[in-house]
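Sequence in, structure out. Go.
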Amino acid sequence: MTTYAIGDLQGCHAEFLALLERLAFDPARDRLWLVGDLVNRGPESLTCLREVMALGDAAQVVLGNHDLHLLAVARGGADLKSKDTLAAILEAPDSGILLDWLQSRPLLLVEGEWAMAHAGLLPQWPLSQAIELAREVERRLSSDTGGTFLERMYGNEPSRWRDDLDGIERLRFIVNAFTRMRFLDAEGRLDFSAKEGLDSAPAGFAPWFTFPRSDDPRILFGHWAALQGRTPGSRVRAEALDTGCVWGGSLTALNLTTGERVSEPRHSHQS
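Output:
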């Protein structure tokens, strides 16, 4: 059995199938870990969602910010954005089944020494605490008040973690840390203004993976295509997997046993 971790699909279905063929992936034998953002901005979000769901237990998925945006549009009253490619999912006859499945995915997956979250792990959270905080959000999403939470999920505040945060502010920060984090300052404050490469960091901020942790998990993350799969200056064991397929880059898989990376180039550029 081989486990492969794969970066953000974002609707790049043709590249996903080509990558699985290059890996000789067999769902009866192998497993996939998908780092979130299965949907949006690419041409085949509906097909990607159906494909991954059909893999059953062979595919483990964590929620990304685009996945949560889809849920917020469908069940929390958020508006579609001009560049969204989510309409086909919302209009599909199996939309309810797909959305139920997606809403039941976790924010954090931990197995052995590996931990996978869409944007990474906040340095201030030991892994044991990160697991508990992720479960808080997951319980809310699966509850009768999941739609209400999705309505109030968006926002950039609070920008810094405190153990005494409660209510929607607590849940919002947890979601933001797991799905939107890129740059932090020395006090653990999140910045949401910079979304490009390392040279876009605001004064006093640095990539989250350049801050030390009190423990040493091997962290799998996506979300940050501008890194091009690299983590320069990292002080933790982090693997960046989003290599920007939807932006004309490639879709990348990491063999968790050997450390080998295999990438499938974008078949047709979409801006």
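Check: The two ends are 37 Å apart (CA to CA). Residues 193 and 202 are 8 Å apart (CA to CA).
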